[in-house]
Amino acid sequence: MKRLLLFSLFLIIGFIAEGQYSIQNTKPDTLFDNILVKKISSDKQQTHFMIWVKKSVPCHYHAHHTESIVVLKGRAEMYIDSTTFKIKKGDMLTIPENHAHGVNKVLSKRPLTILSIQSPEFDGSDRIFGKP
Length: 132
Hints:
single chain, mainly beta, five-stranded antiparallel sheet, 47% strand
């Protein structure tokens, strides 16, 4: 009975750990000119991305997705609709669907590094360049 309990505990811990991902030391795994996107996880409810930006992000919106971002490293000038503001490490913001957004320019020497969470699941087809 004790062995069965221990085995069950290891199985449960294994299933929980499977969904964990350390973003602390994640680095780009390839060279890139301006933007690099790496998918971390995805299911029908959400998709998580690590995104590195060296220069800027063109104006775009998502017709059916909410995007939340957490700035992990760097500084930049960003906008949502007609509001421009600066973002830095530790900032978190949510961009509702149908709101134009982008990064005018990265202000730090190193790339802007963000965690982007799209909800529901994001397959890339709902990134529409320009304004709604």
